[in-house]
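Table S2 (text version). Query chain:
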Amino acid sequence: MRIRAIIFFLLLTILTGCVQTKVIDNLTLINAGGIDYIDGNKIKVTGIYTIYNEQKQAEDNNITMTMNKDAGILDHLSREATSPVLIGDIDIVVIDMKTAKRGIYPIIDTLQRNPSVGSRLFLVISEGSAHELLMGKYGPEGNAKFISTMIETNIKHRDIPNTNLHMYASDFFQEAKGSFLPILKKVTDEKLLIDGLAIFSKDKVVYKIPTEDMFYFKLLVDQHNKGSLDVELDGKGVTIHNIRSRSSIKTDVKKMTVDIEYNMTGIITKYTGKKLQNDVIKKIAKNGEEDIEKKIQKLLTDFQEKGIDPVGIERKFIQQNRSFDKKNWKEDYKKITFHIHSNVTISESGTLE
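Corresponding structure-token output:
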């Protein structure tokens, strides 16, 4: 037994010596990145890494450089840093709108090819400079944690449809559905806000869904059991909080029609009128249904005119119709007639008067 123990110890020592170890304190762990268009083929790249002081408080540091858009980003970051750079812990990449309108495929390709980058990485578009957005001071845990938590919270509880690097790339490489990303805007050095959704044609931003219409888009592309619907009744403001919903999209290739049905159950969390009676509640529900149908119709018409399909209407035709022929899809898409049917049920037990 003693001889076996000695042999085991010697083997363990040899094997341990063969493994390349990396001490965390001697590395620069990038947890947020930013890309800004400069001119021509030049871009500005910002890498954010968080260190903790003696009081265990997060402090953001950055590496910023200008480089050719086709050059190796990680190699250039390493040249500017005082220690080896790793991006395996990166939570979010912010791309400025100028770059997004020119095409972000090289960025997506670079991130996807790096095996250390997680597929759940968040991609966002910035109104204004991505560098300036990342230079704010938004929370005690550092900007990367704050921004990624902000996006995740709005996906789970508000109006951003589910999205990440993997989902964007999946939509991008499948011709039957377009892609989208959330837009962030820096208000002050301590405040960010969600500023809509960027809709892509291939890898370029061509359309923006404003914040107030994100609710309607999400119900088309994602499960939407949170979020709020704002409606008006006789000039009074009403907010209906969505507690349960489901939607369906059915296509008819012979008639070239799309029927969208949306059912929502909610509670009234805000009402600026005097008193909520049954007849008032029914009117609020009716106005909500009309708003949903009108807003969805407007979005779908805009998408047709732009020749973009972030909802995946083509994918629905492929899935539901064996005789579907995609050869003439671009022209057929413009001729589709959409029928929107919505049903809003207000749960009186949760109504605030």
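Notes on Table S2: The chain has two domains: 1-209, 226-353. The first helix runs from residue 2 to 18.
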